[in-house]
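Translate sequence into structure tokens.
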Amino acid sequence: ILFNPLRDRSPEQVAEQFLEQLKMGECAKAVSGLPIPFDKQLSMCEKEGQAALDAWTLKDRSESDAVVTLHYALRRKGFEGFGGDSFFQIQEFSGDWRIIAVNFVY
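Result follows.
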């Protein structure tokens, strides 16, 4: 997939900041601002603790109705290659991009 080099990368920066926090072991901080129930936040952090994030690469990006959907392939520590996936939906609110949905495939 070829991405437009002139695209607004702000949504990607938001997703990658979140992924960087996970990589640094700051899961609780990363998920605290997500619009998901607390029990799902705990579950996500538990899974992250079992298979720590090592690297990611953007696989796909689409835009619809002011929502940017991003698909990242993930590599976990102790595993070879990019075997996991994450999907983000990011929307702009008054100039501020925010994650409105996130899903990880472990």
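Note: DSSP finds three helices and four strands in the chain.
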